[in-house]
Amino acid sequence: MSLLTVNDLSVSFVTRNGTTEAVKNVSFNVESKSITAIIGESGSGKSVSCYALLGLIPQPPGRVDSGTAEFGGRDLLSLSERELRGIRGSDIAMIFQDPMTCLNPYMRIGEQLIEPLIVHGVANKEAATKRAVELLDEVGIQNPEVAMQAYPFEFSGGMRQRVMIAMALIAEPKLLIADEPTTALDVTVQAQIFDLLSDLRRQTGAAIILITHDMGAVAEMAERMIVMYAGRKAEFGPVDQIINHPRHPYTKGLISCVPHIVSDMTEERPDLVEVPGIVPSLKDFGQDRCLFASRCTYVTDKCRASRPEERLFSDGQIADCWHAEDL
Amino acid sequence: MSTQDIGAIVEAEEGASLWNDAWLRLKKNRAAVTGGVVLVVMVLLVLLTPWIAPYSYEAQNLDLGATPPSAAHWLGTDIFGRDLLTQILYGGRISLAVGFIATAVALVIGVTWGAVAGYVGGRVDSMMMRFVDILYALPFMIFIILLMVVFGRNILLLFLAIGAVEWLTMARIMRTQVQSLRQQEFVEAAVSLGLAPAAIIFRHIIPNAIGPIIVYTTLTIPSVMLLEAFLSFLGLGIQPPQTSWGLLISYGAETMEEYPWLLIFPGAALTITLFSLNFLGDGLRDALDVRGSKD
Amino acid sequence: MVRFILWRLLQAIPVIFVVITATFFLVRSAPGGPFDSEKAVLPEVKRALEAQYKLDLPLHEQYVAYLGDLSSGDLGPSFKYPGRSVNEILSSGLPVTAELGLYALTFALFVGVLAGVFAALKPNTRQDFIPMGMAMIGICMPSFLLGPLLVLVFGIYLDWLPIAGWGDLPGDKILPSITLGSAYAAYIARLSRAGMLEILSQDYIRTARAKGLPEWQVVTQHALRGGLIPVIAFLGPAFAGLLAGSFVVETIFQIPGLGRFYVQAAFNRDYTMILGTTVFLSTLIVFFNLISDVIAAWLNPRLRAQFKGGA
């Protein structure tokens, strides 16, 4: 039984200029204690899908059109705001992309850190403070007692992200959603944060959904991945299998785009690989054809005429492509 | 990508230039459009007053005295039997004139001061803005009252006094704008393409700096009008035989128990005009996406 | 922090100095003196009066003498009310005006913040338009229009509240305070709405919601802290405006406060009174601006740390 099963999720945004289907018929599941990556470019709908799970999308202009999200025997998408609040921060926690703006600059670190425990009635202030100090230590913040009294501006980006992680894990959630946690950080810090997340996963047993556009990180950390393009699922399945044998042209393109560092400088350096073309504009989402067609080397008329259906492969690998078998 | 971003991107894919965008946005703001229309009507009415006023300005009818609205006098008459509608029209000429002219004075001084300080920078800028800071800290209300008392109630002086207060903020805004624009990359690009400074100033900096100036000007006019009304109420502004809305309101307040229309109608005229200006100014601010000094 | 305060104090001194000097020479350069309007006064008597009040000395000597008096806190005698000094008149009017200002400010803060925060919670809906529409009325209706209207409705037609005086009849402080405070309630409402809107769109508000906080806690514990800073910064200018506004309100409601004395002094050319009141009020305003700036800066943790480091 999976920890989280998302089935046929669709989310649209209604603005006065029209309706955009930001997420369309996306399905995936997350096993307990696993790391599942959602990978895609900006605008692919990866963040929106996860925000929808926690009800963090403002309902105008957002709108959940369809889908279920089973978690702990309940459908998250049908819960009331009150019930969702009970889950946020305690069963499912989220960390966001830009640590510089995600902490309240007017509040001390300690105050913000203990909030999940206080709000969910898990502990009183004293116990929460103790736990917070422990957690700061676990995430690698030095002098945790002093740090508790500090304000966010006193910390660097990497340290703030660690605080965010501590804040997310303090109530011992079963699932942590990490929305591009390292995009705003330096490369060396990125590696540290990923290591931290892996360690914590081992220690706490929480499952992680890692939203990212970094294929390298996915290859290293995740066990399963879902590739999203233009609001739709392109491919889903075990990471190793997909990387060895991608069944969707977009996935193939993404993998080959990762530049390799050439060890011997005298070797001829291969040209950088790119996927030609650009992502379709938001107005074009939701049409009944393959949205990747204009950039695809395997394209045929069928692709332009109707939306690809799922093709299943061994071990739960699923690809939404008319030509998945040919790859 | 946040949900606001998605909305913005869908919108952006439509609009063209900055002015186009702004005009479209302004049109959608009903309050601003209403304000604009009312303002235009008001201005037209007071401009055409000498031709459309039902009675002459001086016409008195002492036998009649103060009467409530009637067919002959749509808004009633004051204690001298003068038609209130006429009084309000003529008063409006003065009030609006003070508003526009004093604001224009403030605009010219402020924009020039700010533009020079912002463009030249360095020590000159520091000195110029220091001067502004000191003046800014002075409690101007008190000084204006003093000035008006001391030098007599000259309408010209009134313009100058009010203008002297309002130019400071204008200067600050202009200077911030010019300063930030000058450092922006498109100016560097223009310079590297070999454009002369004058061309840069006129074709690049000024059009971009105008946004906040327009907004602030539209919002200064009502402040100025309030200031004039305030002074006139205290007896320090416009003097008889001329009249302004502030004066009319002060007369109305004196006799409001017996003749409430003398207070209500001039009050309504002033309030409606101020409303229009403020709504229009707010609408412009949203349309041009001006964020005060935070930019 | 201490250094910052001292530095601002230092900056305030030239301002006050300019105020004193400018006022002094402005008043004296006006045509007419305090004794001109008296009924035919014998020239000798006039000269004697002028000598007594040192008006016969050259202007710059008068200036220096005045500065000397000032430094000992003596604002001089009133020209118009023989036997009463400016200090005396000021101290009788000050408590009244201070009380009026306090009530008005309290009203403005209370109503303004509530309205602004309320409106910011659901922007562009009725919950937003109605309070902000009323705020617009507050801004567009000058106190000398609002006051009489309130008096007309509540004092005369409904006969609920007294229409003049201060402290003589119960409830006579209500209408003047509301009249004076309305415009500021309106400004504060707009400021707090703008401040809250800005804060509520910040990422850390989303973080707070993601932690499971109920919306009211998100607003009170996370958003208010930053959102109200513009309101605090506004208190300085608001104070200056309230003082100016008191001139009109005290005149309308016949309240024996500083404002009314000031206006009368201005008309009467009571030099020392004008000077004294101007200096006093200006000094107050400058200090209040300073305090409000300091508090606003202190509320921002980053600025606060910078100051502490420099103290």
Weakly predicted, low-confidence segments of chain B: none
The CATH superfamily of the largest domain in chain A is: P-loop containing nucleotide triphosphate hydrolases
Instruction: Give the proportion of residues in helices of chain A.
Output: 25-40%
| Helix proportion of chain B | over 70%
Structural class determined from secondary elements of chain A: alpha/beta
Mean pLDDT of chain A: 87
Please give the number of β-strands of chain B: 0
Q: Provide mean pLDDT of chain B, rounded.
A: 79
- Strand fraction of chain B equals under 5%
User: Poorly predicted ranges of chain A (pLDDT <50, ≥5 residues)?
Assistant: none
- Broad shape of chain A: globular
Q: Report the largest inter-chain contact.
A: B-C, 39 and 46 residues
Kindly report how far apart the N and C termini of chain B lie.
23 Å
Please summarize the sheet with the most strands of chain A.
8 strands, mixed
CATH architecture of the largest domain in chain A: 3-Layer(aba) Sandwich
Describe the fold and architecture.
- The complex is a heterotrimer of chains A (327), B (295) and C (311).
- In chain A, the strands form 2 sheets. Chain A has an 8-stranded mixed sheet, sandwiched between helices. A 4-stranded antiparallel sheet of chain A has the order 2-1-4-5.
- Chain A is globular and about 65 Å long.
- By secondary structure, chain A is an alpha/beta fold.
- Chain A has 2 domains: 2-91 and 173-320, 3-Layer(aba) Sandwich (Rossmann fold); 105-166, no CATH class.
- Chain A has helices spanning 46-53, 81-87, 99-102, 109-119, 125-138, 144-148, 157-169, 187-204, 215-221, 239-244, 249-257, 301-305, and strands at residues 4-15, 18-30, 35-39, 62-71, 74-75, 92-95, 175-179, 207-212, 224-229, 232-238, 310-312, 318-320.
- The interface between B and C is large, with 39 and 46 residues.
What's this model, at a glance?
The complex is a heterotrimer of chains A (327), B (295) and C (311). Chain A is 33% helix and 23% strand.
Properties at a glance:
heterotrimer; B: 295 residues; mainly alpha; C: 311 residues; 13 helices; 0% strand; flat
